[in-house]
Protein backbone atom coordinates (compact mmCIF):
# COMPACT_ATOMS: atom_id res chain seq x y z
CA UNK A 1 0.00 0.00 0.00
CA UNK A 2 2.81 2.41 0.94
CA UNK A 3 4.69 1.45 -2.22
CA UNK A 4 1.66 1.83 -4.51
CA UNK A 5 0.79 5.27 -3.17
CA UNK A 6 4.46 6.27 -3.27
CA UNK A 7 4.64 5.42 -6.97
CA UNK A 8 1.65 7.70 -7.58
CA UNK A 9 3.33 10.48 -5.61
CA UNK A 10 6.50 10.03 -7.68
CA UNK A 11 4.41 10.50 -10.82
CA UNK A 12 2.87 13.59 -9.22
CA UNK A 13 6.31 15.11 -8.63
CA UNK A 14 7.26 14.54 -12.27
CA UNK A 15 3.99 16.22 -13.21
CA UNK A 16 4.76 19.08 -10.81
CA UNK A 17 7.97 19.83 -12.70
CA UNK A 18 6.53 19.54 -16.20
CA UNK A 19 4.84 22.97 -16.47
CA UNK A 20 7.69 24.88 -14.77
CA UNK A 21 9.94 25.04 -17.84
CA UNK A 22 7.28 25.47 -20.52
CA UNK A 23 6.98 29.26 -20.40
CA UNK A 24 10.73 29.80 -20.59
CA UNK A 25 11.22 27.21 -23.32
CA UNK A 26 8.40 28.48 -25.53
CA UNK A 27 8.45 32.22 -24.87
CA UNK A 28 10.82 33.24 -27.71
CA UNK A 29 8.19 31.96 -30.16
CA UNK A 30 5.11 32.68 -28.05
CA UNK A 31 5.85 36.39 -27.66
CA UNK A 32 6.15 36.82 -31.42
CA UNK A 33 2.91 34.97 -32.13
CA UNK A 34 1.08 36.95 -29.44
CA UNK A 35 2.49 40.29 -30.57
CA UNK A 36 4.06 41.31 -27.24
CA UNK A 37 7.60 42.15 -26.18
CA UNK A 38 9.97 39.72 -24.50
CA UNK A 39 9.55 41.57 -21.20
CA UNK A 40 5.89 40.50 -20.95
CA UNK A 41 7.09 37.11 -19.72
CA UNK A 42 7.71 38.82 -16.39
CA UNK A 43 4.01 39.73 -16.11
CA UNK A 44 3.01 36.13 -16.74
CA UNK A 45 5.47 34.63 -14.26
CA UNK A 46 4.51 37.23 -11.63
CA UNK A 47 0.82 36.28 -11.89
CA UNK A 48 1.75 32.60 -11.55
CA UNK A 49 3.99 33.39 -8.55
CA UNK A 50 1.31 35.42 -6.76
CA UNK A 51 -1.23 32.63 -7.24
CA UNK A 52 1.28 30.09 -5.98
CA UNK A 53 2.11 32.11 -2.85
CA UNK A 54 -1.59 32.63 -2.02
CA UNK A 55 -2.50 28.95 -2.42
CA UNK A 56 0.58 27.89 -0.42
CA UNK A 57 -0.57 30.05 2.49
CA UNK A 58 -4.10 28.58 2.25
CA UNK A 59 -2.90 24.99 1.88
CA UNK A 60 -3.00 24.18 5.60
CA UNK A 61 -6.70 24.96 5.95
CA UNK A 62 -7.56 23.20 2.67
CA UNK A 63 -5.55 20.09 3.46
CA UNK A 64 -7.00 19.72 6.95
CA UNK A 65 -10.53 20.03 5.57
CA UNK A 66 -10.28 17.91 2.43
CA UNK A 67 -7.15 15.78 2.91
CA UNK A 68 -3.84 15.78 1.06
CA UNK A 69 -5.06 13.37 -1.60
CA UNK A 70 -8.10 15.43 -2.58
CA UNK A 71 -6.13 18.71 -2.56
CA UNK A 72 -3.46 17.14 -4.77
CA UNK A 73 -5.97 15.68 -7.23
CA UNK A 74 -7.98 18.90 -7.55
CA UNK A 75 -4.84 21.02 -7.83
CA UNK A 76 -3.42 18.86 -10.62
CA UNK A 77 -6.80 19.09 -12.33
CA UNK A 78 -6.67 22.90 -12.07
CA UNK A 79 -3.17 22.91 -13.55
CA UNK A 80 -4.35 20.67 -16.40
CA UNK A 81 -7.24 23.03 -17.14
CA UNK A 82 -4.91 26.04 -17.09
CA UNK A 83 -2.43 24.39 -19.47
CA UNK A 84 -5.28 23.47 -21.81
CA UNK A 85 -6.38 27.09 -21.61
CA UNK A 86 -2.88 28.20 -22.54
CA UNK A 87 -2.98 25.96 -25.60
CA UNK A 88 -6.16 27.64 -26.90
CA UNK A 89 -5.20 31.21 -26.01
CA UNK A 90 -4.74 33.54 -28.93
CA UNK A 91 -3.88 36.62 -26.90
CA UNK A 92 -1.53 37.52 -24.08
CA UNK A 93 -4.36 38.62 -21.80
CA UNK A 94 -6.01 35.21 -22.06
CA UNK A 95 -2.70 33.71 -20.97
CA UNK A 96 -2.78 36.04 -17.96
CA UNK A 97 -6.28 34.82 -17.12
CA UNK A 98 -5.26 31.15 -17.30
CA UNK A 99 -2.10 31.89 -15.29
CA UNK A 100 -4.29 32.36 -12.20
CA UNK A 101 -5.47 28.72 -11.86
CA UNK A 102 -2.00 27.68 -13.08
CA UNK A 103 -0.34 29.32 -10.05
CA UNK A 104 -3.06 28.43 -7.55
CA UNK A 105 -2.95 24.75 -8.51
CA UNK A 106 0.84 24.57 -8.41
CA UNK A 107 1.15 26.09 -4.93
CA UNK A 108 -1.53 23.95 -3.30
CA UNK A 109 -0.22 20.65 -4.67
CA UNK A 110 3.38 21.54 -3.79
CA UNK A 111 2.59 22.25 -0.14
CA UNK A 112 0.20 19.31 0.28
CA UNK A 113 2.53 16.73 -1.29
CA UNK A 114 5.65 17.93 0.53
CA UNK A 115 3.94 17.79 3.91
CA UNK A 116 2.41 14.36 3.23
CA UNK A 117 5.78 12.90 2.29
CA UNK A 118 7.49 14.57 5.27
CA UNK A 119 4.96 12.96 7.61
CA UNK A 120 4.69 9.48 6.10
CA UNK A 121 7.92 8.63 4.26
CA UNK A 122 11.66 8.51 4.95
CA UNK A 123 14.13 11.27 4.06
CA UNK A 124 15.48 9.29 1.09
CA UNK A 125 12.11 9.51 -0.65
CA UNK A 126 11.96 13.28 -0.16
CA UNK A 127 15.27 13.61 -2.01
CA UNK A 128 14.32 11.18 -4.76
CA UNK A 129 10.92 12.81 -5.21
CA UNK A 130 12.50 16.23 -5.71
CA UNK A 131 14.92 14.60 -8.13
CA UNK A 132 11.88 13.44 -10.10
CA UNK A 133 10.62 17.02 -10.10
CA UNK A 134 13.87 17.84 -11.92
CA UNK A 135 13.13 15.09 -14.43
CA UNK A 136 9.77 16.70 -15.17
CA UNK A 137 11.31 20.16 -15.47
CA UNK A 138 13.93 18.77 -17.88
CA UNK A 139 11.40 16.89 -20.05
CA UNK A 140 9.09 19.81 -20.84
CA UNK A 141 11.66 21.83 -22.87
CA UNK A 142 12.09 18.74 -25.07
CA UNK A 143 8.31 18.55 -25.53
CA UNK A 144 8.30 22.22 -26.53
CA UNK A 145 11.28 21.71 -28.84
CA UNK A 146 9.61 18.75 -30.56
CA UNK A 147 6.39 20.73 -31.01
CA UNK A 148 8.22 23.69 -32.56
CA UNK A 149 10.46 21.51 -34.75
CA UNK A 150 7.50 19.56 -36.11
CA UNK A 151 5.67 22.76 -36.97
CA UNK A 152 2.79 21.96 -34.61
CA UNK A 153 3.47 25.16 -32.67
CA UNK A 154 3.92 26.05 -29.03
CA UNK A 155 0.24 25.50 -28.26
CA UNK A 156 0.54 21.78 -28.99
CA UNK A 157 3.27 21.45 -26.35
CA UNK A 158 0.92 22.89 -23.73
CA UNK A 159 -1.80 20.54 -24.98
CA UNK A 160 0.47 17.48 -24.58
CA UNK A 161 1.42 18.43 -21.03
CA UNK A 162 -2.23 19.19 -20.23
CA UNK A 163 -3.19 15.66 -21.36
CA UNK A 164 -0.46 14.19 -19.13
CA UNK A 165 -1.82 16.22 -16.22
CA UNK A 166 -5.38 15.05 -16.90
CA UNK A 167 -4.26 11.40 -16.85
CA UNK A 168 -2.46 11.99 -13.57
CA UNK A 169 -5.46 13.81 -12.06
CA UNK A 170 -7.68 10.84 -12.91
CA UNK A 171 -5.14 8.49 -11.33
CA UNK A 172 -5.05 10.66 -8.20
CA UNK A 173 -8.84 10.66 -7.85
CA UNK A 174 -8.89 6.86 -8.24
CA UNK A 175 -6.16 6.54 -5.59
CA UNK A 176 -7.95 8.64 -2.94
CA UNK A 177 -8.82 5.62 -0.72
CA UNK A 178 -5.10 4.78 -0.50
CA UNK A 179 -4.28 8.12 1.13
CA UNK A 180 -6.70 7.42 3.95
CA UNK A 181 -5.36 3.90 4.49
CA UNK A 182 -1.78 5.17 4.75
CA UNK A 183 -2.96 7.77 7.27
CA UNK A 184 -4.67 5.04 9.28
CA UNK A 185 -1.57 2.81 9.37
CA UNK A 186 0.93 5.60 10.17
CA UNK A 187 1.77 5.86 13.88
CA UNK A 188 0.20 9.05 15.23
CA UNK A 189 2.54 11.02 17.47
CA UNK A 190 1.02 14.04 19.17
CA UNK A 191 2.87 17.11 20.31
CA UNK A 192 3.26 17.45 24.06
CA UNK A 193 1.21 20.65 24.10
CA UNK A 194 -1.55 19.24 21.91
CA UNK A 195 -4.55 17.52 23.52
CA UNK A 196 -5.37 14.06 22.26
CA UNK A 197 -7.72 14.07 19.31
CA UNK A 198 -6.92 17.65 18.27
CA UNK A 199 -4.52 16.87 15.46
CA UNK A 200 -6.99 18.18 12.90
CA UNK A 201 -7.23 21.65 14.53
CA UNK A 202 -6.55 24.49 12.14
CA UNK A 203 -3.28 26.34 12.84
CA UNK A 204 -3.77 30.03 11.95
CA UNK A 205 -1.05 31.76 9.96
CA UNK A 206 -0.04 34.20 12.71
CA UNK A 207 0.03 31.41 15.29
CA UNK A 208 2.38 29.41 13.08
CA UNK A 209 4.62 32.43 12.53
CA UNK A 210 4.93 32.93 16.30
CA UNK A 211 6.29 29.43 16.87
CA UNK A 212 9.95 29.53 17.99
CA UNK A 213 12.28 29.16 15.02
CA UNK A 214 9.74 29.54 12.21
CA UNK A 215 11.10 32.90 11.08
CA UNK A 216 14.61 31.42 11.06
CA UNK A 217 13.69 28.57 8.72
CA UNK A 218 11.66 30.90 6.49
CA UNK A 219 14.71 33.13 6.03
CA UNK A 220 16.92 30.09 5.38
CA UNK A 221 14.45 28.75 2.80
CA UNK A 222 14.11 32.17 1.18
CA UNK A 223 17.91 32.42 0.95
CA UNK A 224 18.31 28.98 -0.62
CA UNK A 225 15.57 29.44 -3.23
CA UNK A 226 16.88 32.92 -4.05
CA UNK A 227 20.35 31.43 -4.51
CA UNK A 228 19.11 28.63 -6.76
CA UNK A 229 16.93 30.81 -8.99
CA UNK A 230 19.59 33.53 -9.29
CA UNK A 231 22.25 31.01 -10.28
CA UNK A 232 19.94 29.41 -12.85
CA UNK A 233 19.04 32.75 -14.45
CA UNK A 234 22.37 34.60 -14.35
CA UNK A 235 25.21 32.03 -14.35
CA UNK A 236 25.56 31.80 -18.13
CA UNK A 237 25.47 35.59 -18.56
CA UNK A 238 28.13 35.99 -15.85
CA UNK A 239 30.41 33.46 -17.51
CA UNK A 240 30.08 35.13 -20.92
CA UNK A 241 30.22 38.81 -19.95
CA UNK A 242 32.56 38.71 -16.97
CA UNK A 243 34.79 35.72 -17.74
CA UNK A 244 34.75 35.74 -21.55
CA UNK A 245 33.54 32.16 -21.82
CA UNK A 246 32.09 31.16 -25.19
CA UNK A 247 28.26 31.41 -25.07
CA UNK A 248 27.74 27.76 -26.07
CA UNK A 249 30.13 26.57 -23.35
CA UNK A 250 28.56 28.83 -20.75
CA UNK A 251 25.06 27.63 -21.64
CA UNK A 252 26.15 24.00 -21.37
CA UNK A 253 27.67 24.45 -17.94
CA UNK A 254 24.76 26.55 -16.73
CA UNK A 255 22.51 23.62 -17.58
CA UNK A 256 24.87 21.36 -15.64
CA UNK A 257 23.96 23.33 -12.52
CA UNK A 258 20.39 22.07 -12.91
CA UNK A 259 21.56 18.58 -13.81
CA UNK A 260 23.79 18.70 -10.72
CA UNK A 261 20.75 19.44 -8.56
CA UNK A 262 18.78 16.57 -10.10
CA UNK A 263 21.63 14.05 -9.91
CA UNK A 264 22.64 15.27 -6.45
CA UNK A 265 19.17 14.66 -5.07
CA UNK A 266 19.16 11.17 -6.51
CA UNK A 267 22.53 10.43 -4.87
CA UNK A 268 21.55 12.12 -1.60
CA UNK A 269 18.62 9.72 -1.29
CA UNK A 270 21.04 6.85 -0.67
CA UNK A 271 22.60 8.54 2.37
CA UNK A 272 19.78 10.78 3.61
CA UNK A 273 18.51 8.41 6.29
CA UNK A 274 22.03 7.83 7.65
CA UNK A 275 23.20 11.44 7.61
CA UNK A 276 19.94 13.09 8.67
CA UNK A 277 18.36 16.33 7.53
CA UNK A 278 20.62 18.60 9.57
CA UNK A 279 23.81 17.22 8.08
CA UNK A 280 22.37 17.39 4.57
CA UNK A 281 21.46 21.06 5.01
CA UNK A 282 24.77 21.95 6.66
CA UNK A 283 26.85 20.00 4.16
CA UNK A 284 24.80 21.28 1.23
CA UNK A 285 25.37 24.92 2.08
CA UNK A 286 29.08 24.22 2.68
CA UNK A 287 29.48 22.58 -0.73
CA UNK A 288 27.59 25.42 -2.43
CA UNK A 289 29.93 27.84 -0.67
CA UNK A 290 32.92 25.94 -2.05
CA UNK A 291 31.42 26.12 -5.54
CA UNK A 292 30.85 29.88 -5.20
CA UNK A 293 34.47 30.39 -4.13
CA UNK A 294 35.63 28.41 -7.18
CA UNK A 295 33.47 30.61 -9.42
CA UNK A 296 34.88 33.78 -7.82
CA UNK A 297 38.61 32.91 -8.07
CA UNK A 298 40.29 35.26 -10.59
CA UNK A 299 42.31 32.57 -12.35
CA UNK A 300 43.62 32.67 -15.94
CA UNK A 301 41.67 29.50 -16.75
CA UNK A 302 37.90 29.14 -16.82
CA UNK A 303 37.98 25.47 -15.86
CA UNK A 304 37.79 26.13 -12.11
CA UNK A 305 34.83 28.52 -12.46
CA UNK A 306 32.97 26.08 -14.69
CA UNK A 307 33.64 23.22 -12.29
CA UNK A 308 32.52 25.47 -9.44
CA UNK A 309 29.11 25.80 -11.07
CA UNK A 310 28.73 22.01 -11.13
CA UNK A 311 29.90 21.77 -7.49
CA UNK A 312 27.36 24.42 -6.49
CA UNK A 313 24.61 22.41 -8.20
CA UNK A 314 25.55 19.24 -6.34
CA UNK A 315 25.64 21.13 -3.04
CA UNK A 316 22.26 22.72 -3.70
CA UNK A 317 20.64 19.33 -4.26
CA UNK A 318 19.72 18.16 -0.73
CA UNK A 319 18.93 21.52 0.89
CA UNK A 320 15.33 22.02 -0.24
CA UNK A 321 14.19 18.42 0.44
CA UNK A 322 15.94 18.33 3.82
CA UNK A 323 14.41 21.61 5.00
CA UNK A 324 10.94 20.36 4.10
CA UNK A 325 11.44 16.86 5.54
CA UNK A 326 12.75 18.24 8.85
CA UNK A 327 9.67 20.41 9.44
CA UNK A 328 7.61 17.86 11.45
CA UNK A 329 10.70 17.14 13.57
CA UNK A 330 11.47 20.79 14.26
CA UNK A 331 7.93 22.08 14.79
CA UNK A 332 5.70 19.06 15.42
CA UNK A 333 3.36 17.09 13.18
CA UNK A 334 0.36 19.21 14.12
CA UNK A 335 2.03 22.38 12.82
CA UNK A 336 3.87 20.94 9.84
CA UNK A 337 1.24 21.57 7.13
CA UNK A 338 0.83 25.22 8.12
CA UNK A 339 4.57 25.80 8.27
CA UNK A 340 5.34 23.96 5.02
CA UNK A 341 2.68 26.10 3.33
CA UNK A 342 4.44 29.23 4.60
CA UNK A 343 7.79 27.76 3.53
CA UNK A 344 6.49 27.26 0.00
CA UNK A 345 5.30 30.88 -0.03
CA UNK A 346 8.72 32.01 1.20
CA UNK A 347 10.41 29.88 -1.46
CA UNK A 348 8.34 31.31 -4.31
CA UNK A 349 8.85 34.85 -2.99
CA UNK A 350 12.63 34.38 -3.03
CA UNK A 351 12.48 32.84 -6.49
CA UNK A 352 10.38 35.72 -7.85
CA UNK A 353 12.13 38.69 -6.20
CA UNK A 354 15.83 38.01 -5.93
CA UNK A 355 16.90 37.33 -9.55
CA UNK A 356 15.40 40.68 -10.69
CA UNK A 357 17.06 42.39 -7.72
CA UNK A 358 20.40 40.95 -8.78
CA UNK A 359 19.74 42.25 -12.29
CA UNK A 360 19.31 45.77 -10.91
CA UNK A 361 22.49 45.49 -8.81
CA UNK A 362 24.43 44.08 -11.76
CA UNK A 363 23.33 47.01 -13.90
CA UNK A 364 24.74 49.43 -11.32
CA UNK A 365 27.87 47.54 -10.22
CA UNK A 366 28.58 44.91 -12.87
CA UNK A 367 28.08 41.17 -13.21
CA UNK A 368 31.27 40.51 -11.24
CA UNK A 369 29.15 40.70 -8.06
CA UNK A 370 27.37 37.37 -8.80
CA UNK A 371 29.68 35.23 -6.61
CA UNK A 372 29.43 37.84 -3.83
CA UNK A 373 25.62 37.90 -4.10
CA UNK A 374 25.44 34.09 -4.00
CA UNK A 375 27.95 33.97 -1.15
CA UNK A 376 25.83 36.28 1.00
CA UNK A 377 22.79 34.03 0.41
CA UNK A 378 24.84 30.92 1.33
CA UNK A 379 25.99 32.48 4.60
CA UNK A 380 22.48 33.73 5.41
CA UNK A 381 20.92 30.31 4.80
CA UNK A 382 23.58 28.46 6.78
CA UNK A 383 23.49 30.85 9.75
CA UNK A 384 19.70 30.77 9.98
CA UNK A 385 19.52 26.97 9.78
CA UNK A 386 22.22 26.56 12.44
CA UNK A 387 20.44 29.01 14.73
CA UNK A 388 17.29 26.93 14.31
CA UNK A 389 19.20 23.77 15.23
CA UNK A 390 20.43 25.34 18.48
CA UNK A 391 16.93 26.59 19.28
CA UNK A 392 15.39 23.15 18.68
CA UNK A 393 18.06 21.51 20.85
CA UNK A 394 17.36 23.93 23.71
CA UNK A 395 13.65 23.16 23.57
CA UNK A 396 14.43 19.41 23.33
CA UNK A 397 11.65 18.77 20.82
CA UNK A 398 11.40 14.98 20.37
CA UNK A 399 11.88 13.42 16.95
CA UNK A 400 8.34 13.02 15.65
CA UNK A 401 9.18 12.04 12.09
CA UNK A 402 7.87 8.81 10.60
CA UNK A 403 10.38 6.97 8.46
CA UNK A 404 8.06 5.02 6.23
CA UNK A 405 8.75 2.58 3.47
Q: Mind explaining what this structure looks like?
A:
This protein is mostly helical. The chain has two domains: 2-181, MFS general substrate transporter like domains (Growth Hormone, Chain: A, Up-down Bundle), CATH 1.20.1250.20; 205-395, MFS general substrate transporter like domains (Growth Hormone, Chain: A, Up-down Bundle). Helix content is 81%, strand content 0%. Helix 2 packs parallel to helix 6 and helix 6 packs antiparallel against helix 7 (154-174). The termini are close together. Mean pLDDT is 83; it is low at 187-199 and 397-405.
Calculate the mean pLDDT score and round it.
83
CATH architecture of the largest domain: Up-down Bundle
Give the CA-based shape: globular
The biggest beta sheet is recorded as: none
The ordered H/E elements are: HHHHHHHHHHHHHHHHHH
By CATH, the superfamily of the largest domain comes out as MFS general substrate transporter like domains
Number of domains: 2
Could you tell me the number of beta strands?
0
CATH fold name of the largest domain, please? Growth Hormone, Chain: A
Count every helix, treating DSSP H or I runs of 4 or more residues as helices. 18
